[in-house]
């Protein structure tokens, strides 16, 4: 049975007339969409304002919206009617449509995100199958401008503040916000740590919290009066007053991920791209922040040779401005703590990939401090990799730099497409097939080849037998770029991102010693200069064991990008043989 979608004007007269059509319009669970009625074909650069809601009393709810100043400009109503709907179904459908509209890219979604969590209910799988039919009807009516795969593969969808939270994510957000508002009210500072493996949604939590705090800050008593949400307790007049004037920023060390998040903030009411900063932006900003949220905290820098002389000078200047002297022991972590009264750090120490990253002992101290203050939270639910949470620990076991007395036992990863290839051309062909089937399949590699094409666009960087490939032609949003399927991404373009399928080339920088039964690194085959240089400022040098740790952590990050599957090809014959016993061979 197909759901019915009724369209009417967003006006008192239209709502009043509709109220008399059927008693269910005032006493039945429905989902509805309000929009400002703009024609995207004639105004392609203008976002459509849209709001999605659910109610047991559609007529009464529309009258409330008509009295809300923030919705006075809306023009059109679409009501989704279905005789089988109940409250749980409507909440789920509402969340689904909000997520899809935010990911479509044509909309400015006016909703709060306080109810977007992953919940279960009777016959959920059956209803979610029916959501596709509702989506199809709305798409035929021109509501959606992109296909479902295009939306679900987009950064706007994956990094949306309207993502559905898992239970452990929701618990963390609830406890963090509760502690933050309590500490703000008491006038005391706080440091919170949220730790999680790849795929547990640290970036999602960071963005979600930013949106939630802004929603609390800007909420009014006229909005969402019948909302039954997980975080409804935070929407009080006291909290709204408490958060007024609160200066909030999101610090993201990685350029590509930072730029992708800025695109999301640009399309989200209450959020602004200027909130998304580099560590340097935060360090040299005027005045103090009330709260700084730091994603990928492990990628903050200690004092080390920066990518440019300008940044070296800036590092020293910020340190002097904040601490009165150029104290080389100060790190970007110290900047963040000095520039803000409250901090939320999201991290995974095993994803540090360069000597300039914060040292492991400093991250351990940060975690210990947050534990002692009862401000430590851990994300455990695997959101990305369909193989489950054991996959990350298994990959890290395969890549353990210590000698392997016995190879790690391979768990059952079910239908997850996990294979080792003996031929890189065959792996590349498989990636192309997967991309044609579901999209978002890419090749990545360790930094084991010089980047010749950076200066000569006609040059090839990676040559393995007859296969000739080029590195990523852009460092910004490479995964979504036009040439990405033909190219190979590096750690700096994919860390923090999801792919449907990832094909990982393990270069000649990582090798295997059969006699010693351990991995080793070929320093001469590793071409990331910043990834292996010593630190004369701090008097630190990095030997091959240090480099091996960084390289294996890089490959662990690369091998944990794939939602549906991970393919691996190793250049070193001994390593290929070692992996053959640990990863199912391709057929």
Automatic annotation (TrEMBL):
Coiled-coil ranges per UniProt: none
Domain spans labelled Schlafen group 3-like DNA/RNA helicase: 191-572
SUPFAM superfamilies tied to this protein: P-loop containing nucleoside triphosphate hydrolases
Recorded superkingdom: Eukaryota
Pfam families attached to this UniProt entry: SLFN-g3_helicase
Gene3D superfamilies hit by this protein: P-loop containing nucleotide triphosphate hydrolases (3.40.50.300)
Cited InterPro entries: P-loop_NTPase (IPR027417), SLFN_3-like_DNA/RNA_helicase (IPR018647)
Name recorded for this polypeptide: Schlafen group 3-like DNA/RNA helicase domain-containing protein
Annotated source species: Mycena rosella (Pink bonnet)
Taxonomic path: Eukaryota, Fungi, Dikarya, Basidiomycota, Agaricomycotina
